Amino acid sequence: MRILISSDIHSNILACEELAKIYKHEKCDLHITMGDAIDLGPWPNETLEFIKQENLIHLKGNHEEYNCSIGLGPELKKNIGKSEFEHYRWTKEQIGNANIKYIEELPYKYHMETGTYNLYFQHFFLENGIISEYDVFKKGINQLDFDHTFGIEPGKNNLIFFGHLHKEFKEEKVSTYISVGSAGCEGKYSKGKLADIIEIDKNTYKIKTIGLNWDTKMVINEIEGRKMPDRESIKEYFFNQTPAST
Predict the structure, then answer these.
(1) How high is the pLDDT of residue 43?
(2) Of 57, 83, 84, 152, which sees the most CB atoms within 10 A?
(3) Which tens digit of pLDDT belongs to each residue from 206-218?
(4) What is the DSSP string of 38-67?
(5) For residue 53, what are the β-bridge partners?
(6) Under a CB-based contact definition with an 8 Å cutoff, are residues 220 and 212 in contact?
(7) Which residue blocks in the chain are alpha helix, DSSP H?
(8) Exposure pattern of 61-79 as b/e (b: 16+ CB <10 Å)?
(9) Are the CB atoms for 168 and 7 separated by under 8 Å?
């Protein structure tokens, strides 16, 4: 079985198109995208419509939470600036009521068994029923006890895939934890344009990291063309354009 695993597309329709090509070229059996399909990029509605027509498994991330009835978490509400708040409002206006309902109903987790392995997929660990507000960009993740925070009974044949970090990461405890990076961003907070493919049979598996070949300049131009709120910070931190190069 071959599974394409992506995360953090962040309103990037170019990344969606690349993932669809990879899925076909690599002859995958399933595509699971682990949340944060919206915000930051310029195509929130187009991205959700693309995902829905691809009939893949879409899990809820914190950015889906921000744009449905759950809303912003308490820590973000305390620290958010006006321009960032305007960005989330802009996204919600773009996606409309039908897609707000769609993201409202997304699951947080997906579990499957194949061969001798248990595969778990989720955006990040949950606290109080929502995605944890632990700041991975400022605090890092080295001090986290993954076997405890993810709340999955440890097992040597557990493979736990997640996103949120915007970079590759692998931690082998009793279970194995794998971050696939961001498919739709690059920059100070996003290392790569990445997705994973896991090929798995009864007793063995191998993971291949795939680089996506979308054009950052096209994303930047669209961000500017749509006059997207909070665009200067987003371009710097998530699309690798420093203020000096503007």
Answers:
(1) 98
(2) 152
(3) 999 999 999 999 9
(4) SSSSS-HHHHHHHHHHHT-EE---HHHHHT
(5) none
(6) no
(7) 13-25, 44-54, 62-66, 74-79, 82-104, 136-139, 146-149, 216-225, 231-238
(8) bbbbbbbbebebbeebeee
(9) no
pLDDT, average across residues 2-21 = 98
Helical axes 231-238 vs 216-225, angle rounded to 10°: 170
Strand order in 194-200's β-sheet?
Answer: 57-58, 30-33, 2-6, 194-200, 205-211
pLDDT digits (tens, 9 = 90+) for 48-77: 999 999 989 999 999 999 999 999 998 888
Closest to 175 (Cα-Cα) out of 162, 188, 184, 185: 162
* Spatial contact of 59 and 34, defined as CB atoms under 8 Å apart: yes
**Beta strand extents in 94-189 (DSSP E only):** 109-114, 117-122, 126-127, 130-131, 158-162, 168-172, 176-180
Rounded distance between C-alpha atoms, residue 136 and residue 185, angstroms: 16
C-beta of residue 40 within 8 angstroms of C-beta of residue 11? yes
DSSP β-bridge partners for residue 113: 118
Which pLDDT does position 245 carry in this prediction?
Answer: 46
Rounded-to-integer distance, Cα 59 and Cα 57, Å:
7
CB 12 within 8 A of CB 214: yes
Q: At which residue do the structure tokens 């054009």 appear?
A: 215
Cβ–Cβ < 8 Å for 55, 82 = no
Residue 238, strand partner residues: none
pLDDT at position 243 over 80: no
